[in-house]
Structures are given as structure tokens and as C-alpha cells.
Amino acid sequence: MSSPTSTPRDARPKTPPSTQNGASQASKPAPKPFPSVTGGCTCNAIRYRLSKPPLFVYACHCPDCQKNTGSAFALFLNIETHCIEIQTPTTPVLVTQPKRPGLVYACYACPECKTELWSANTPLGQVIADVRVGTLDFPGLMEPDVHSFVESKMGWLVLPQGARTVTRDFRFREVWPKSSLRRLDVCLKRAAEAAERTPTAGEFGGEEGEDDEAFERRRIWRN
Ligand SMILES: [Zn+2]
Ligand SMILES: [Zn+2]
Where is the composition biased (Acidic residues) (predicted)? Predict the structure, then answer.
């Protein structure tokens, strides 16, 4: 784990000690490993690891996020759902709840302590998760790339100088780094290909007594 003062995306793993004659090494440097970022729920029944750096980190100051968290804002990181590796036998359960007309809340939570771990209904669909940054072991590693809905930000909350802000929501294609957009496009393409190949639960029956939700859970966490 790198120093908690740097973000993982900025983390530059130390150069491994040279074991050979460094002077004659003209080959490409080995790819830098992503430092392991881990997290879990309050009761620790669920532990997870992110296998890639986040695509994007954002703080949302909208009234819905304030209500849902009971706090000043919500802090999320986006990552490909398949890059969240569950390390415990207990897996998150999908919790859906209509909050008000037009807003259905869907997230994965610990079945034991009910800690909400990541949202399941991002505008990008199930392939991208909105992980709740506070569930990381070192949430301070993730600084928001953007603050959205700043028009409803708490007046006493002063953002760092230079912080990127938007009123209302942002368009991810305008604010995500290019490398993240490339990862997103790869992910969406794979998901589209998989959808063409994979029969739905209904088509092949699924497992005995399994509803759509259970099928989806099994499909997502099987990797
Ligand atoms: Zn728990
Ligand atoms: Zn929000």
C-alpha cells in the first residue's frame, strides 16, 4: 500500500531493486503494478479488492445523495464491476428500493450488517459500479476528480482550491480521463458481446427456484 497521502492513480510504485547490470538494461520497464486497494463492510462478512485503479472518483452534493447518506455529500468511485473481487464466502446482495416516483435505488449491500457497498444502477448499467468510497480500508486515498451538484452543496463546506465543480450532473464523456473512456468502451463492447452469447436465466432455466435477482448475482460474482 502506498502512502495514504497519495492517490492510487498517482501512486508510482517504487522501482524494483536492480538484480542485474542495470546499465545494460535497455528493455521496456515492466508494467507498474496497481497497488492493492481493499475494502469491506462494517461487520467484515464481506471483503473486497479492486483489481484496477478507479475510472473516476466524484463527490455528489445532490439532495438525493444527502438524504441517502444522511450526510453532506456522497463519495463514489467508478470501476468495472468485474474488477471488484469479492474475497469472502459471503457475497453482497442486491437491494432495490423505490425512493420516490422516478427514482429506484439499487445497490449491493452486506446481507449481515446491511452496509451499502456499491450502487447497481449507474447510468452506465451493471458493467460499471459506483463504489462507496467510505467502504475502502483507506478512503482517504481517493480524492474526487469532480464535485457535482455544487448548487446544493452545504454552505459551510469549502472545497479545496482548484477543485473541479459542476452544477447538476456531469457528462462522463466530458470529464473522465481518456484512459478511463477507453476502458469503458472495452467493457461495454465485451458486455454487448456477452449479452449476444449468453442466454438469459429464463431461456435456460437458471438454477432451481432462482429468481432474476439471484441469477444476476450469480452471474456477476461468478468470476
Ligand atoms: Zn457486513
Ligand atoms: Zn447525488
Answer: 205-214
Q: Is residue 210 part of a domain?
A: no
Q: Bridge-partner residues for 48, per DSSP?
A: 39, 86
**Domain at 166, CATH number:** 2.170.150.70
Give the span between the Cα atoms of 46 and 171, in whole angstroms. Answer: 32
Phi/psi at 68 (5° precision): -60, -35
For 55-80, the pLDDT digits (tens) are 999 999 999 999 989 999 999 999 99
Neighbours of ion ligand 1 (CB under 5 A): 41, 43, 45, 110, 112-113
Give a yes or no: residue 19 inside a domain. no
Instruction: Measure 220 CA to ligand 2 centroid, in angstroms.
Output: 25
Specify the 3-state DSSP secondary structure of 34: coil
Query: What is this model's ipTM?
Result: 0.97
CA dist., res. 222 & res. 199, Å (int): 16
Is the separation of the CB atoms in 106 and 95 below 8 Å?
Answer: yes
Question: How many domains does the chain divide into?
Answer: 1
